[in-house]
Amino acid sequence: MTDVLARPRPEPTVLQALRSPRLLTREVLAGLVVAIALIPEAIAFSIIAGVDPRLGLFSSFVMAVAIAFLGGRPAMISAATGAIALVIAPVAREHGVDYLLATVILGGILQVILGLAGVAKLMRYIPRSVMVGFVNALAILIFIAQVPQLIGVPWAVYPIAAAGLAIMYLLPRVTKAIPAPLVAIVLLTGAAVVFGISVPTVGDQGALPESLPALLIPNVPFTLDTLGIIFPFAVAMAVVGLLESLMTAALVDDITDTPSSKTRESLGQGAANVLSGLFGGMGGCAMIGQTMINVKASGARTRISTFLAGVFLLLLVLAFGDVVAIIPMAALVAVMIVVSIATFDWHSIRPSTLRRMPLSETIVMVLTVAVTVWTHNLAIGVGVGVVAAAVLFARRVASLTSVTRSVEGDTARYVVEGELFFASSNDLTTRFAYHRDPAHVVINLSRSHVWDASTVAALDAVRTKYAHLGTTVELEGMNDTAARFHDRLSGGLGAGH
């Protein structure tokens, strides 16, 4: 009975939310807040990619609606992102919009292929320290992205932003019935209009579309030359998009204490990007900032909020474009600053945590943050973090390997302890007293395990060195798996040089 009570309560399903006015209201309002926050972001990312703002807005609409049905992680938001914009910007700049759309479609197809190939399973090889670094780096990048909106602006921006921060922090202590970000945006927009406060607005970021996106086929030659142009960018887009999406999904899993299908998420991201390209969008992936607004700040838990985020986005820019255009950017900046603070894992940098944490784990976390923030590229940051974690782990495990020697009559006995792989076995041949040992040597491996060909080659080299001295060597204590692995490779690896 205790175990049942200890289990986390499952998140509500779409049907449960539709039947509950309270839950449905929460999902609807969350979707509205996300849609408002998506508009300036989509416009900004379009500018980064060097394309018309409509491409970013159309992409955000298509991806949010598509991923609501196709994705594996409920309540996660996918739309046009800065990471994808940076990857595909050279295509638009050098070859035009049609080649960009073709790149987005091919990138989506590659994501589907990677999903079918089981790339989502690789998530298990990303250490916790890299995940923490990824989250902290994203929080810093979200904050940095707000800084330009606070520099060289009218003085009225600062009290508006401060008021937004106060609303975001204080309102949840009074009521959580209405998302604090929505209240902040509405009140601050109303105040700016009533008092005639002149500050930068959403409308200043770029023109909003006036028509629905239309289905189209990119006007590019279907030739190998075209494939040669777009393929490298499509591969980069597919990898970066999946990496950011899967890691964001893992973060939401942790926040909500619920699992999600990473394979389905991979397939959904690919299909959403294909649809985005076919409807004239610039492509994208999961958005950590908007997802945190949806899940943490607004409390959404189902696909309804994701779907409505896309629907509200299109409705706002088409039917209420004039209203959306007057929203002060300072209000959205306040929302995103609170999101960045909530996203950062403050526990990871507490002195008590740092004292308990192995130094190598802290180094990996800091390195992941530093590289990600420096390059503004999550794929590079996470890649460097994973490599660093692997190297430090191998070094730590290798240092735990030991070889002890004892002599009993005419037999020298060596006991090898620890995990034997390339990092620990490369100097294994130096651990033996070849010229001082008697005619019979026993190497006991019962406290170790043979993991790779490097270890088998090292053991063969030890036996060969002893054989040159007329000494016989006996290996004992290997478990069945290690023994079969050793027997299959021993003698065929060129040891003894």
UniProtKB/TrEMBL annotation:
Keywords: Membrane, Transmembrane, Transmembrane helix
Domain STAS: 416-484
Organism: Microbacterium galbum
Lineage: Bacteria, Bacillati, Actinomycetota, Actinomycetes, Micrococcales
Transmembrane domains' residue ranges: 28-49, 55-71, 99-117, 129-147, 153-171, 183-202, 222-243, 326-346, 358-374
InterPro entries (UniProt xref): Membrane-Transporter-like, SLC26A/SulP_dom, STAS_dom, STAS_dom_sf
Top-level taxon of the source organism: Bacteria
PANTHER family in UniProt: SULFATE TRANSPORTER YBAR-RELATED
UniProt cross-references to PROSITE patterns, sorted A to Z: STAS
Entry coiled-coil feature ranges: none
Membrane topology (UniProt): Multi-pass membrane protein
Subcellular location: Membrane
Main location, first listed in the record: membrane
Protein name (Swiss-Prot/TrEMBL): SulP family inorganic anion transporter
Keyword ATP-binding recorded: no
Pfam families: STAS (PF01740), Sulfate_transp (PF00916)
Record keyword Nuclease present: no
